[in-house]
Amino acid sequence: MPSLLLASILDNGAVYYPLLFGIPVVAGIVVAWQNLARRSALWILAAVVTAEMLVDFALDEERWSDLPFFVVVGLILFGLAAMVRWIALRFRPEPVGRVAE
User: The whole model's pTM is what?
Assistant: First the structure.
């Protein structure tokens, strides 16, 4: 029953598209503010996007015919998350005082 409810919520474009693009954006901002190493941050972003695509893939009716679409969308969302991380790092305040030494 909960999967049917989730699937019906995601059928609505007003919910689906903000979630589709919002999750990688929020993940990119959070990873940037956590001050993680670049490699760790990118692995976390890849895991977030993969999880998002797996949920979308599981709820799709024509899974296997849409597989190339999911791969391309996943790559685009990973690029979006990495770009948001890069932009958020540019706006993060620099530490001052003894912390910066």
Answer: 0.77
